[in-house]
Amino acid sequence: MFVYIFVAILMFVVLPMLEQVFKDFKTELTGITKLMLSFGRWFQEIGWLLLLPIPIVLPWALAQIPHREPVSPRNRTWRILNFTILALLLIGFLFSMTALMPLVSLIQTVNSPKK
């Protein structure tokens, strides 16, 4: 749930601020950043509601996968929890990086002397 909250804060708070900065400085955005901004707009409108079940459904779905070797219920629960956290952290990290790449380019452009 914490990772989901992190992604929601990124989409609802940070992303609109970054989008405004990019517009103000007329920064050229990469394709992945444009895709992320589009996803952020979708997430703000209805996506957050559609993706809300992921932290509940994903662990349940992983629990349904049969294993060859017997695993204690406690170990199985920890494996599912760790996989879910890893997947959501990876998604959050990718969105963070796609937001930061144009910012680095913008800072370099602003700081470089005009020729």
Give keywords.
115 residues, mainly alpha, 4 helices, 81% helix, 0% strand, elongated
Number of strands: 0
* Rounded radius of gyration (Å): 19 Å
Report the span from N to C terminus: 49 Å
Taken together, the total number of domains comes to 1
Largest sheet: none
In percent, how helical is the residue content?
over 70%
Number of helices: 4
Supply the helix-strand structural class.
mainly alpha
Helix and strand sequence: HHHH
Tell me, rounded to a whole number, the average pLDDT: 80
Stretches with pLDDT under 50, minimum 5 residues: none
Percent of residues in beta strands: under 5%
Shape: elongated
What does this structure look like?
With 115 residues, this protein is mainly α. It has one domain. Helix content is 81%, strand content 0%. The protein has four helices and no strands. The protein has helices at residues 2-24, 31-51, 54-63, 73-111. Helix 3 crosses helix 4. The longest helix has 39 residues, at 73-111.
Which secondary structure elements does this structure contain, and how are they paired or packed?
Layout: H1 2-24, H2 31-51, H3 54-63, H4 73-111
Give a quick summary of the entry:
The chain has 115 residues and is mainly alpha-helical.
